[in-house]
Amino acid sequence: MAFQNIGIIGAGQMGCGIAHVSSLAGYKVQIYDLDPDRIQAALATINGTLARLVAGEKITDEERNAALSKISGSADVNDLAPMDIVIEAATEDESVKRKIYAHVCPVLKPEALLATNTSSLSITRLASATDRPERFMGIHFMNPVPVMKLVELVRGIATDEPTFRAAKEYVASLDKTVTVSEDFPAFIVNRILLPMINEAIYTLYEGVGSVDAIDTAMKLGANHPMGPLQLADFIGLDTCLSIMQVLYDGLADSKYRPCPLLVKYVEAGWLGRKSGRGFYDYR
Ligand code: CAA
């Protein structure tokens, strides 16, 4: 399958990152979001992340301008019609994703590949909410997308081989490394990473150490680039909770029980960096 046009559903932090790397790789990118203000904010963010590369002499000004000229944003779903690969990067909520597929599928080309950037949900179950389970799969980018080298690929039970090969080719063209995960709750990275973060929150909850002690311990004692509480804020505490909930429900093991402190923070609207407050204060 020859593909040139990448559609992105959702102008959040993952959507911005996927647009950034896809445009630099030469694809035309169409971002779709219901909220025009979010689209404007996303275009400004991508402008900023590309400018950072120019400042660091990683790309030239011309390359930045070429990448920017390839990105459009719109709140009109019909603008996704010419897209070859469409990646849904909406919020980690199954009912929201199902509604999006019902809205978007009728406008897509029959041969278009539809992928989800879900970090935990069943690909097979999400595929069943589309009109193309054989051309549906998981393409899971890591945050921040421009920096992280890994992308997890996940087939649903019905995903066909041409779809898988096209996704693999697309990811390779972004100069990222692929790992393949079976369709289990939270796949590989989050199956391992999120219980570690949840445990760090239990460590705080039980008073074993302060926020600073826990993060310093893991940064200097285990060489992690960020401490687990800082990373939780970076990922978003609502996303962390929803991934833990998927692990707890899907694997039915008490070791995945979300820490009550994580639940309480999310209930308070303390969602980490994006809300201005989490384990740290960003205001
Ligand atoms: N977008 C683009 N580039 C970015 C960026 C962003 N949001 N944040 C940082 N960078 C770039 C910087 O431009 C810089 O590039 P150069 O080296 O070329 O100058 C480089 O990354 C390092 O940035 P900084 O010096 O500003 O900061 P740092 O050294 O502290 O690195 C970090 C920042 C890359 C985020 C690093 O702290 C890190 O790797 N943290 C861990 C991130 C991680 O674990 N991500 C996975 C999350 S889990 C996930 O994504 C799965 C899921 O589904 C939840």
UniProtKB/TrEMBL annotation:
A single MF term (Gene Ontology): 3-hydroxybutyryl-CoA dehydrogenase activity
Keywords associated with the record: NAD, Oxidoreductase
Annotated positions for site Important for catalytic activity: 140
Keyword Oxidoreductase: yes
Its EC number(s): 1.1.1.157
Residues of the 3-hydroxyacyl-CoA dehydrogenase C-terminal domain: 187-282
Domain 3-hydroxyacyl-CoA dehydrogenase NAD binding stretches: 5-183
Gene3D superfamilies linked to this entry: N-(1-d-carboxylethyl)-l-norvaline Dehydrogenase, domain 2, NAD(P)-binding Rossmann-like Domain
Single GO BP term: fatty acid metabolic process
Root EC class: oxidoreductase
List of residues binding NAD(+): 10-15, 33, 92, 97, 119, 143, 274
Signal peptide coordinates: none
InterPro entries attached to this UniProt entry: 3-OHacyl-CoA_DH, 3-OHacyl-CoA_DH_CS, 3-OHacyl-CoA_DH_NAD-bd, 3HC_DH_C, 6-PGluconate_DH-like_C_sf, 6PGD_dom2, NAD(P)-bd_dom_sf
PANTHER family in alphabetical order: 3-HYDROXYACYL-COA DEHYDROGENASE FAMILY PROTEIN, 3-HYDROXYBUTYRYL-COA DEHYDROGENASE
Similarity remark: Belongs to the 3-hydroxyacyl-CoA dehydrogenase family.
The protein's name in its UniProt record: 3-hydroxybutyryl-CoA dehydrogenase
Organism the protein comes from: Rhizobium wenxiniae
Lineage: Bacteria, Pseudomonadati, Pseudomonadota, Alphaproteobacteria, Hyphomicrobiales
